[in-house]
Design a protein that fits this description.
Length: 108
């Protein structure tokens, strides 16, 4: 059994605290040869207007795309990202210990 994880899971909300966690998670993934899976959870029920829900989803997707690109470029590691809705039991495409297939497959 490999002593290091195959995937490192990082939840992000774009805050400064999340950016600090991003740096640590990316360094761990780089050091261990792991893939980094970045997850952002959106609560679709938080916006009563369906147009606002779509806007929140688009903003979240833009956040994930930007962070995945920055991480991949800065650390030269494989980054998968997953946009999840609040209440999803786990990110389907970012399985820990397996080879998940996220929406994006970025390799540095």
């Amino acid at each position: 059994m490999d002593p290091f994880p195959m995937n490192v899971l990082l939840a992000t909300d774009g805050s400064e605290e999340a950016r600090s966690a991003t740096r640590m998670a990316a360094a761990i993934a780089k050091r261990t040869g792991s893939e980094l899976c970045v997850v952002h959870v959106v609560d679709p029920g938080a916006a009563a207007d369906p147009r606002l829900q779509v806007d929140r989803q688009q903003q979240a997707r833009a956040l994930l795309d930007e962070q995945a690109r920055e991480i991949s470029e800065s650390y030269s590691i494989t980054v998968r990202d997953q946009l999840a809705s609040y209440g999803t039991p786990r990110p389907r495409d970012c399985s820990l210990g397996g080879k998940g297939r996220g929406r994006s497959d970025r390799r540095g």
